[in-house]
Each structure stands twice: as structure tokens, then as C-alpha cells.
Specification:
Two copies of one chain form a homodimer. By secondary structure, the first copy, chain A, is of the alpha+beta class. The first copy, chain A, is about 35% helix and about 30% strand. In chain A, a hairpin with a 6-residue loop joins strand 1 and strand 2. In chain A, helix 2 packs across helix 6. The longest helix of chain A has 26 residues. Chain A is globular. At the A-B interface, strand 2, helix 2, strand 3, strand 4 and strand 5 of A face strand 2, helix 2, strand 3, strand 4 and strand 5 of B. Strand 5 of chain A pairs antiparallel with strand 5 of chain B.
């Protein structure tokens, strides 16, 4: 007999559809009627606010300061960097007029054309680069370490909530340095910040690696990525960090006088991550009953559900619940005392992914115990916790949940990563499977395109920290010193 | 002899220019090369982040949840509300194309015109109203209490940093209620939230009042405002709260089934405040030496300045400074150990408005006292504080500074508010003075326009909580039950 689940279809039945249903059941977000744009609803935005807070702390701890730059990029700015404009000019939102007036028929039409069209920022290298070129004069002004939280627009044709939308929210770091070495260090440091954030805040294990030339950020010298494995065994690029060399410094004119008094171009980096984190979160941990939230980013970490069978007990039970809430200092707690059935109420919070649920009724008060349910376990598994120990237990459960989610995801990633050393096996594998394939690989742009066309598989990254063991490229047979991760991807 | 000041010109010499210079000296923001848009630099953005945090707490404490809605408003949405579109369609940024392609000469030009132009949100009533119309079905869905932090764009011709820019940052609350009474209560509650925030966070005294019809938000039934007096005795509208009646519910189709089962339009409100808060802050407290920050929104509340006269003392002094910093738990402290002259360093932080400066040199270590300077006092006034008492003293000084700034601004506002009961005196007053004039007033749109033209004076608001004492309208001589505040304004 098929197990009843809160989400239909299940992951096994239809993964992409399951993803949409989890979002709807948890009331995270929805497609707006504005083409390609999403509305992030309060529960989804609450998660984003916690992500922002935790990632922002890490960005500041590493010496960066937040600032804010204009939404608009003049067309002429975008054109300064040839590769960059190739990458971003294709699909963008273009402001051409600044007035609406009524035509003869009474319809509003755009009037007052702009002298120069403005692009809604798809990314801010050029607009921030212009500011850097004025702010940086001397080596004393370096390093300059800036971050911005903002909305950006890329005109996407096929959109999916949190994964790919026309407008999305993100943070973008932009830094300038006096030496190539420093810029490289920064690029990798921020990649590490993303990886730590993924682990500590989201319980997502990631692989850090370098992108191949074909997948590089337009205009960058090197692009690094963190790749996570979703439960359908596809890869999701969760954040990227770019070493821009002196390319953008040259196109934006970011020059400084070095210690010797010579004028020199700065070395710059940029790194970004988006509301896509929420998509990664959903697809890493959620199950067929809905969202599962890692405690650090759960808007409520614990919900107290009063079980009121008789009206005369109402006051006492609610009073008891309030007392429990007060004990749980520093934990995000809510009491759900809505007058609806207990089952409906429990399922409401299961689907929203709240890590812990407490039930408190007459029996619990009499016995001085509380029934506690962990979202990461089966929804019938109860722990009876004595009132006295509640605060300690809750704290340790939240810690355990985070560890459990991470370990489970890491195990899943390991179980679905295999070494393959010849092309036939590779084709065999991807025709009936998904997962991460580790294979020796020599860079070859044409090869990558063919692989995408034939297998829908791409080189996700060349993982960092490899031993350098030689092998034969799985495609060309040429000698290769590194392995790449090949996978289907979001 | 003229006193030397860090800012030239002084407030008395040229107030508007002084304002620009304070911003530059504190490195808060700058005009970008993108028309009308500003760059908020790290120190300015740090202030904004603290404002956001404190105001956001108040918005959440009053039951509101944050969410995020699209940047784009389709033209057809804006047209649904006749008055609203009149107010906002005139000067806005219009997206008409979504692709850039090279023409024959190799220049990028906008292609792929949109079927329907998109307006960059000047405010989000229509886009949020569309969502509300789907989210609200029954009285059980009400009240719906939403807030959004976002960027908005209004195509301004004359811009001033923080006060009026094409793009600015703000929060906008949008709520829907089952009854008119509830919506009215909400409108005034949020006005009160703004007034408390102005006092508690920014030490700015404000007057709460209702706007006249001429100054109402386009489409609103009533608009309430908080008005603050700047040091040039002009008024600055710091935040507004709008009772929208059923106007927007009707144009957006926000209907619900009431308890009786009848379909009914909701009552909605909206309320907003912007990066203009920073302008208000600057013009309320700053002096001829630069910015003066109220402690709650100071990115650093205290700076420790090591005074190192001999290199052999360096280590010991810096060690001592670190120890002091550790003692000041919960206070935002920085140690400025840059290798520059002490005077230059002090002035750097004076201009940035940091509330407290500590100087620590060999003498201070020997005597176990610290020299403490308050930014709100003359910059030569020193307090010698014993090391033992430092933490307590610093906390009480920060509290005192906040009270002192508020009291000073309140006294200034009171000293520059006068009752005037006839037109001749009014004209006399404004031809040589500035300030708030309280005068009996009966609403008359034509009158208001004439007053603006002739005197450059507007009705700022009809203050709330008036006794209802009757008098004669200062213009028409008709009986009037309320007094209005008349002033020149930003």
C-alpha cells in the first residue's frame, strides 16, 4: 500500500512537480503576474532574512563593508568590457523613457525618451567599477572591500521559483587589491565563506571547485563555484567567486599609485549568491511531507501546539504554554492557538518545515512532561521530555538536527558520486542515472558543448585540492592532471 | 575673530551648502554619474542598516511580516486607480525592451519591445493589491499586515542626496482590514510607530498631523505625516501613513466574505519611510564641525584613539586599548591605530559624528584614567573617567547624549513655533523668518496654492489631538476649528 504523504506527487513520482508543491504547501513564494518575477511570501522571506543575517555576519567578519549603488547601468558602461557585455546584454530590462502621457485615445504611452538607455543591473561590476576608479588613488586605499545586497534583473525565458527568475535578490561582493596574489586569496577566501555558510547555516555539503573556461563569468580570469547535490542527484551551483584579474580595472580605469610611486591597474574580484540558496535548501532536505528547515534559518525553530480537549482546561494549558515559551530564551518559538483541529495544525507546521513541535495537553501538564516531535524524523516518533530539562533538550535537539541534516546530505552526495574512467561507461551511466561523476578531464571547449548536447551533462567544476594524480582524459584520451565533476545541473 | 570650524561654509553662512559638505566630510554618500541616483557609501549605509534594524523591529512587534514583491508594475495595473496614476505616471522609469543587439555600425541598441511597458515601482500599492486580491478570500484572512524593504524610482528633476533622489531605499507597509475602524486604527498606529522611532532611534522630535487634501497621497482618503523641524527652521516630512479607504480595494478587487457571508471590499492602508531619514538626521543634529550621530544609529558609538608618542610604548598602549574595548561589551567600538597624526585622527571621527572618543596614552595608563570626549559637546571638553568606572560611564553618557540631542532639538522646535492670527503678521513673519506657524485654518485648495506661490509656504499638517478651540481662518476669516502648521519645507 502506498504511504500517504502531505505532498503529491512525491519526489520519486515527479521531482520537479514535487519541488513546486513543497513551495506552495509551505507558502514560501509564488509566480507573480509580472513576467518571470516572483513574490516571496512571509515564510519564504523570513528564511531569506535569516540567511541574509548569517551570511552578512560572515561577510563583515572578513572585513567587508556594505554599501549601495544605483539600479541603473548606462548602456555605455556595459559596453566598456567586451566579454562582459556579450554575456549580459542579451537578455536584460532596458529603460528607454521617463514619462507617461495620454495619447489621443486616452491611453497612457511612454514619452520623453532618454538620451542614453539604462539597463537594470544584471550585475554591478561596471557601476561599482566606475566608483572604484574615483575612490582609489593610492595603494593606501587598498584593499577596498565592498558588498551590496540588492535586486538584479536578467530577462529569463524559462523561470522556476528561487532557481531562475527575472528579478532576484542577492548579495554581490566587489573588491580591489594591490597585487594579483591578494586578489586570488580574496577570491578563494570568499568561496570558503560560502562553503562554511552552506554548511553552518543551511546544512548543505558543497564541493568547491573552479569552473572551466566555457562556464566562466563573462570577463573573469577564473571563476570558482560551490556545487551542491540535490536529491534528484543533479548539481546546483549555489554561489560563485570570480578572480577578475586586471580586466575590469582596465575597462573601468581603476588605477593606483603603488609604493614606488608608479601608476598601476588594480586587481579586482567579485562574488555573489542569491535567493537561489532557498531553492538549494528545499531540494537538499525536504521530504514527501514538505519543507524541512535547518534550525539556523527556521523563522520558528519550535512551535508549541496546545491540545485542548475541554474548554475548562483552555486557560491553564495556554498559561502553561506561555511559561514554556518564556523558558526557551534565545529560541524562535511560536504558540499556535488557532481554533482548528490538532491534526490540521500539526500538518501545517510539518509542511512549513519547523524543526521541533511540542504538544501540550492536560496529560502533559499532569505528568510534567512534554511530547516533542522532530521534523527530521518520522512524524510519529515522539520524545517525552521532562519539563525541567526542556530548555537543555531543545537546544541539543536543534544542534542534533543540524548535524543530522548535514550528515544525511553528505552521505547522499558520497553515495552518488562515482569515478568513471572511460567514455562508454560515462554514457551508460548518464543514460539511466544521475549523480556526480569524477573523471580525468582536459579542458576543451568544443568537447563541453558536445557533451551538453548529447548527454545534457556539463562539467560542474574542477574540485580544488586535488592530488595531481595523472590519468587519461575521459573524452580525448590525452594526459590530464585533474579530475572534473560531470553532472546534469539546474 | 571667526571660530575655525571643520565644515565650510557654516550653517549660518550657507545652509544648503553646509548640508552637502557635512555629507562629504562624513563620507556618507555621493551623486553617481547615473542621473539622479546616489551611491550610499559604507558609513552612510551603516547608519541606514541600523535604522532598518530598529524600525524593522518596531514593524514586526506591531504584527507585520516582511515579504518581497516585483520591481516592475505593468502599465495596465497603474491605470486601474485614476488618481493614483495621475500622481505617479508623470515621472517614472519605463522599461520598454528586453534585448540589446548590435546595429550595422556595431552599436548596441534596444530590441525586442515588450508587449506592455513596465514601470519601475514608484510605490507598490497596485502590485501588492493584485496579490492581496488573490490572498484574501474570507474575513479569516484579515487583517493582512505586510511590509516590504525595497528600492523605488521616481524620476526627479532636481535631486539632493538623501532628500530627493531618483532611486531611493524605503520600507512600505501595506495592510488590509475587515472594517473601516480597524484600518483607521492601523494608519494612526503606524504614524505613532514612526514618531517613536524618530524619537528613540534618531532623537528627532516630530509633530504628528493630517495632511490637507492638496497634499494627500494620490488615491488616499486621508494622509498622515510626521513633520520635523530642521536647523534652518524649515519643515521636513519624515514619514507618511495613508488611510486608503476602499479605493484601492475596489480598483484591485480585494474582496472578502464577511462573518455574515456577504462579499465586501476590504479597507486598506499603506505607510512608508525612506533613506530621507538620514537627511532628517543630518539636518537636525549636525553642527559646523560635521555630523552628529545619535548613539542608536552610530555604526561606531565609541572610538578609541591610542596616543603613541614613543615607539617603545606602542605595544603596551595598544594592548591597553584592546582591554578597554573588551570591557565595553554590547557597545560598537573601534580602535583607530592608523599611523597618522592625533589631531587629524580626532577630526576624522568628529566629522563622522561618532558620539564618544576616548584617548589613551602613557599618562592615561599611569593614572588609570581615560580622557573622554562627547561629540555633542564642544570638542575641547574632556571628562577624565577612571578605568574602573569606564563601562558604566560610557553607557550613561550614550544615554545622556541621546536625551540631550532630543531635548535640544525639541527646544529648538518650540522656540521656533509661533501662533499667528492674522494674515499681515503671517506675511511679515515669512518674509524675514522661518519656523512653524500655528494658525487657524479652514481647508481651501486654491488658498494653499496661492500661499505656496506667494510665500513659498505650505500647510505642513493639521496636528492631531487639538482641543477644537474655535478661531478665524487666517486667510478666509471663516470659522475654523483647527489650527494648521504652516512652514517652508523640503
Amino acid at each position: 500500500m502506498k504511504k500517504r504523504t502531505a505532498i503529491t506527487p512525491t519526489r520519486a513520482e515527479n521531482y520537479p512537480q514535487w519541488y513546486q508543491e513543497v513551495i506552495q504547501a509551505a507558502d514560501l513564494a509564488e509566480h507573480s503576474k509580472v513576467r518571470g518575477c516572483m513574490i516571496i511570501k512571509p515564510w519564504g522571506f523570513g528564511i531569506w532574512e535569516l540567511m541574509q543575517k548569517l551570511l552578512d555576519e560572515k561577510i563583515k567578519e572578513t572585513g567587508h563593508q556594505n554599501a549601495y549603488f544605483p539600479l541603473f547601468v548606462p548602456l555605455s558602461y556595459l559596453q566598456k568590457e567586451a566579454e562582459h557585455v556579450e554575456g549580459f546584454a542579451k537578455e536584460c530590462a532596458i529603460v528607454t523613457h521617463h514619462r507617461l502621457e495620454k495619447d489621443a485615445a486616452g491611453n497612457l504611452i511612454p514619452t520623453s525618451p532618454l538620451e542614453e538607455p539604462l539597463i537594470i543591473r544584471p550585475t554591478s561590476e561596471m557601476i561599482i567599477g566606475e566608483a572604484f576608479s574615483r575612490w582609489i588613488q593610492s595603494y593606501r586605499d587598498l584593499p577596498l572591500l565592498i558588498n551590496q545586497w540588492a535586486n538584479v534583473v536578467r530577462w529569463e525565458m524559462r523561470t522556476r521559483l528561487f532557481l531562475r527568475t527575472t528579478e532576484f535578490l542577492w548579495q554581490e561582493g566587489h573588491t580591489a587589491h594591490a597585487t594579483e596574489e591578494e586578489a586570488k586569496t580574496e577570491t578563494l577566501k570568499m568561496l570558503q565563506v560560502y562553503a562554511s555558510f552552506a554548511k553552518e547555516a543551511l546544512a548543505i555539503p558543497v564541493i568547491m571547485g573552479e569552473k572551466t573556461e566555457a562556464e566562466r563569468f563573462p570577463g573573469a580570469v577564473a571563476t570558482y563555484t560551490i556545487e551542491a547535490m540535490m536529491q534528484d542527484r543533479k548539481a546546483l551551483q549555489a554561489a560563485t567567486s570570480h578572480m577578475l584579474g586586471q580586466n575590469f580595472a582596465k575597462s573601468c580605469g581603476i588605477q593606483f599609485q603603488n609604493v614606488q610611486g608608479d601608476l598601476q591597474y588594480a586587481w579586482t574580484t567579485s562574488w555573489g549568491s542569491t535567493t537561489r540558496w532557498i531553492g538549494a535548501l528545499i531540494m537538499t532536505h525536504s521530504d514527501d511531507d514538505g519543507l524541512v528547515l535547518p534550525p539556523p534559518v527556521a523563522p520558528f525553530q519550535l512551535v508549541i501546539l496546545p491540545i485542548i480537549h475541554s474548554e475548562e482546561m483552555r486557560k491553564e494549558i495556554l498559561h502553561y504554554c506561555e511559561a514554556l515559551k518564556k523558558e526557551l530564551v534565545g529560541i524562535r518559538v511560536t504558540i499556535d492557538d488557532r481554533p482548528i483541529r490538532g491534526g490540521e495544525k500539526s500538518w501545517h507546521w510539518i509542511k512549513k518545515g519547523v524543526p521541533l513541535r511540542l504538544e501540550v495537553g492536560q496529560r502533559e501538564i499532569e505528568r510534567e512532561t512534554i511530547s516533542l516531535y522532530r521534523r527530521d524524523k518520522g512524524h510519529k516518533e515522539v520524545e517525552a521530555v521532562s519539563k525541567r530539562e526542556l530548555s537543555i533538550k531543545v537546544r541539543s535537539f536543534l544542534k542534533e538536527i543540524q548535524e543530522h541534516l548535514y550528515e544525511k546530505a553528505l552521505q547522499f552526495q558520497r553515495d552518488n558520486t562515482i569515478d568513471i574512467s572511460n567514455k562508454t561507461s560515462l554514457i551508460d551511466f548518464f543514460s539511466s542515472n544521475d549523480g556526480f561523476v569524477l573523471a580525468h578531464y582536459c579542458e576543451d571547449k568544443g568537447l563541453e558543448e558536445r557533451m551538453k548536447e548529447e548527454l545534457n551533462v556539463s562539467v560542474r567544476c574542477i574540485p580544488l585540492g586535488q592530488s595531481g594524480e595523472e590519468g587519461k582524459c575521459i573524452f580525448t584520451g590525452k594526459r590530464a592532471k585533474v579530475r572534473a565533476i560531470l553532472a546534469k545541473a539546474y
